Amino acid sequence: xxxxxxxxxxxxxxxxxxxxxxxxxxxxxxxxxxxxxxxxxxxxxxxxxxxxxxxxxxxxxxxxxxxxxxxxxxxxxxxxxxxxxxxxxxxxxxxxxxxxxxxxxxxxxxxxxxxxxxxxxxxxxxxxxxxxxxxxxxxxxxxxxxxxxxxxxxxxxxxxxxxxxxxxxxxxxxxxxxxxxxxxxxxxxxxxxxxxxxxxxxxxxxxxxxxxxxxxxxxxxxxxxxxxxxxxxxxxxxxxxxxxxxxxxxxxxxxxxxxxxxxxxxxxxxxxxxxxxxxxxxxxxxxxxxxxxxxxxxxxxxxxxxxxxxxxxxxxxxxxxxxxxxxxxxxxxxxxxxxxxxxxxxxxxxxxxxxxxxxxxxxxxxxxxxxxxxxxxxxxxxxxxxxxxxxxxxxxxxxxxxxxxxxxxxxxxxxxxxxxxxxxxxxxxxxxxxxxxxxxxxxxxxxxxxxxxxxxxx
Length: 458
Hints:
This is F-box domain-containing protein. Helix content is 17%, strand content 30%.
């Protein structure tokens, strides 16, 4: 599925940084320090030719360095003190700290990058977890008030006054000529926000908590999280769908074993591949009592963890998948009400199949019937509606044949049932379930609008 996005994401693999003993990317040790001397300049002064690099105007050197990647900058900084002074200029490092517009509470973008982001910046972004049935949606952000990278769980609750057992489905008369679109006024207005306490806090330089002698490599953090090797393509193809995360329905750069898999025969990475720690995967260990530490093995990864903890695999949800475009106006994250199961998050994505543009709705968080990573509904042709209706306020609703997926507990006896997809607006959609004589409403989620709890308190 999603071959166009998959090819794009595979090209991102070239951006991975190799494994280092420190577990960082961009640096292989501590932040760079000025060289002891200007030996390069002295050698050049005694050579038969001038130093063409140092002969360039500082403005041009800065322009060249602003286009270099981190590893090249670090190498250049160790040539001599002149280049070190130019390379530590803040204008260069502002790009590597994007989208942050201020280095506070650090004194400069150079300090912000070298003391925090070069090791912990990978955690920023949107992450989806494979917790059994239910999944998780997390956001990693830099907190300018604490100078830390913090990981928060995104939560959705019903409007005040509704209970967890109260169905928010809309009931309508299934006879087509008696359907009144006024029944589609939504009763689902969820409250979205980040949980007050972060699940994970990254301060920067973290001491290792396990032996890092190859092939057992551990990237350690203070709160039960480890970055892991990705599965190679052959391993993904040879595994059952439920043992791989993110699922095949979600385009991803890298994939790993799910929390339910203990397949020790899978090697990370594949034979003949250079070992890389993925910036798009990590495993998170939940639990408070760490009085007894045990070793467990995940592929080639030996992990020190409390035997009673339960780990969850996380994959990065790339920004391309959450960005609406002119060609894909419904693409992105949505939240809908699943009756007694409560609000659940979906990823809407497009795919061209047999000359039709198909809209897939994949559950990011799920329930015991249709769990995370599975398709909850699809629209076989999202380009050509079967009918439209213009309301009094001038907005046009579009109606499409659709299919919804239902299943028994544990995703057993799954089947597709007829439905109707109603495109209310780019911010609201409705799915009519003919089997249940009900309609459920979904609303777009903009994670950038969710503020950190610490920022809200200011």
